[in-house]
Each structure stands twice: as C-alpha cells, then as structure tokens.
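ESCALATION

Customer reports they have been waiting on this structure for their group meeting. Please prioritize. Original submission:
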Amino acid sequence: MTKNSKETSDFYIRLLKFCEKYKDGFTYDTIMKNDDFMLTKWEEDLVKMYLDNANSNKEKQRVGKYSNYDTPFYCIKSDPYFYSEKTKYIISYDSKFKYLDYLELKEAREFSKKANKHAIKAIIIAKYTLYITIVTLSLSIFFSFWQIVKPVRIDNIQFQEMKNFISNQIDYNNRSYEKKYKN
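Update from on-call: job pushed to the front of the queue and completed.
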C-alpha cells in the first residue's frame, strides 16, 4: 500500500497506478525498492511472477517461440533475468485500458453521487414550492370567498352618485331613442 494513499486497497489497481507514472519504463527495483509503494509478501511474489512472465514472453518471442504468459506488463528491454537493471517494463495495452476503464467508472460513480445529491435537493425545493403554492392558493380562495360573502355597504353619498349616474344614463338613452325615431 502507498504510504500517503488509502484510496483503494485493490492491489492490481494500486500496482497499475504506481507503474503508470513511469512512461519510459520501470525495472524490478523501481517497484520492489520504492519506499512509497509498500508491498506485502504475497504482493511481492505476485509482482515477481508478473515481471518474470513479461520477461519470459519477450525472450521466447525473440527466439521465435510463442509465449503468452498472463501478465499486466510488457517487457520493452529484455535480459535473461527479470530482476536485472537492464530489463525494462511498461504496462501492457490491455492493462492500460482496464486501468482507464476503472478510472472512468470511478469518475462516473462520483458524478452519479453528485447528480443524486442535486436531484434530492431539487425534489426538496419542488416539494417546498408545491407547499407554498397550495398555501397561496388556499389563502387566495379564502379571501375571494370572504369578499363574495361579505355584505356590501353603500353610504348615502355613494348611493346618490349611483342614482344620478343611472338617471343620466336613462335620460341619454331616451334622448337617443327619440332622436333616432322622431326624425
């Protein structure tokens, strides 16, 4: 496990993340003697097997023999011994794509969590908006109904003004009628 990172406990992911930093290749010692990348005994054995398989694949292909040992690494510079300083490795294309898929999945999960949080906030806001709308509608109906059933009171001055208005309207209509039909 790396000293400063408890991001993931999956050995394969940690190994690919560590080795991915070495674009020009890495050696056996790069992994085994690095203080930032601490390995347990079984992880050391697994790394040795991966590096030995990559080196064996390269050596057998060099002499024309088919070899396809399972390993996440590809040997770019071969020596008879996988632990030699002359032997260099890189992450295989298949492992690189698996690592990229892992990173994309991890990012998608983070975005999904964020989207879920935003959706919950939106639902809460919509819920409060609905409550406010219902309260506003209820108050509007109540006050409208109250205005309808409330008795209308007209004082004498208002009554007299209405009476004069109606009277003037009737007089105007009568004059218009007479004018139209008497001529």
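Sent to customer with the following note: The radius of gyration is 43 Å.
Escalation resolved.
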